[in-house]
Amino acid sequence: MDNVLAWLAGHRSARRSLTVMSGVLLAGALVLLGFPVYTDLTHNSLQNKLSAQLGSAAERQAYLDGTIADGASLTRIVISKIGVSTVVVQGTDDQALQAGAGHYPTTPLPCQNGDVAIAGHRTTYGKPFSNINLLGVGDQITMRTPVGSCVYRITRAPFVVAADDMGVVANTPGQATLTLTSCHPKGSASHRIIIKASMVSSEQSG
To answer: Which of 21, 109, 112, 182 has the least C-beta neighbours within 10 A?
Structure first.
């Protein structure tokens, strides 16, 4: 160690390089630590706005007409077992998913026949799907939409597929089903963890 310090003392450029490198590493660490905090703050602010929008007369009419805009409130997903209560928006692009969870727009609306598909974050933007790996057969998922609510029951244990496997969100004509998707493992986009459920009850609001 003494030899290293002595060498550094005689090489100003080496000391400068080490100082710059230390600063870069520190900045990188601060970004890694701060980014999840930033996304959670963004998510919380957005969720407050979406909650108010979900209960509006305009959103109810848009739901009935099937004209919900990308990024607009669609439904509240409640998964009591893992403490989830999050407003899901229409769309699954990066901007829409700042809400934490988004509905695949090519799939049916929640509580309708067919396979409703919803994607959600596991590590950022409120991470609503962080613990969906803990769900099991028989656990329930509730959807509260502007026009009513419904309950789905999980029909198989969570499973993992390749990130580009879109077969998991294929439609199920004549059946009311639900698919949840999220990145797997946490912090990686190499695969998707999948939850499959079937609707067991529904109730329309007046």
So the answer is: 21
Nearest to 111 by CA among 83, 80, 88, 134: 88
DSSP assigned state of 119: E
- Tokens describing residue 51: 């909650």
This prediction has a pTM of 0.81
Q: Which two tokens stand for residue 125?
A: 């933007």
- CA R_g for the chain: 22
Burial of 154 (0-12, 13-18, 19+ CB in 10 A): buried
Hey, is 93 helix, strand or coil? Answer: coil
3-state secondary structure 127-171: CCCCCHHHCCCCCEEEEEECCEEEEEEECCCCEEEECCCHHHHCC
User: Hey, what are 110's tokens?
Assistant: 């929640």
